[in-house]
Structure prediction request, 322 residues.
Amino acid sequence: MAFDSLSAFLTMEGHGSYVWVCYCVFVLLLTALALWSRSRRHAVLREQRRLLELEESGTREQAPAAATFSRIHPS
Amino acid sequence: MWTLFHKFGSPKWFFGIAGRLMPWLLALGLGLLVAGLVWGLAFAPKDYLQGNSYRIIFIHVPSAFLAQSVYLMMAVAAVVTLVWRMKLADLFVQAVAPVGAVLTFLALFTGAVWGKPTWGTWWIWDARLTSMLILLFLYFGAIVLGSAISDEKASARAVAVLILVGVVNIPIIKYSVEWWNTLHQPATFKLTEKPSMPPEMWVPLLLSVLGLYLWFGWLACYRMQTEILRRERRTRWVRELVRAEGH
Prediction:
């Protein structure tokens, strides 16, 4: 250990705040990246599942009738 | 040869390989990173000139190192995109660009906080700092351009060209501390020379660089898998996978 006590470790002879801020931001941002990537994965999976279900229910039921054309008689 | 090339380019093949690699990358990466950081923070000796503020090096150097090598990897992928139109190459670029931007921001941020007690200022427009800021903007450019063009192939090509134009910035970053008189200290590690630090300092630094590399490998695999799931929606194997995940 390079420090004699816990308080010496925290203050680091006046440089503590600089060092600790850097380490905290580093850990925070890496964690945020991982969590953001995870929520994106879940969102993509959810969306794909929804589309898949939509397609499957579409094929099972009768496809909607094609557009019909009716002759109009302009007077 | 061509079958091998196609195999390596196939998203399905990559998805499986990535899944097998990821646990190892994550465990090893986090292990090395934590070991390096704890060692550097609590056990490495104090620097005789800079005191304890130098401990920021154990996160500053890995972030800056990765920020540049991620850009170089993206440049290689950009060439592959332009020449061979390989799907995986563009997937890689899209998946890692935000990660590279965060790493560049971290390098700039930790550098600024380190600069205050060491140089007496948060920021100066010196060559190393300015070229790193340009790297951050290049990452932003790649992200914004990629999401602005909705056609996948057109977007891949546009982003690839932007990345290749920006690659000129990388040697500028690397040699800025030698070409110009800057406040920034010269490189800590050189391939051709022994490090100027004692092993109690450079071993933890090396551990954290390696750890961050492996962690990046894990995150890149994970994000590429997500992109594959999004883009290959119409293939049968992705449909089966999505169906299996739902139950």
Q: What stands out?
A: Residues 21-56 of chain A form one domain.
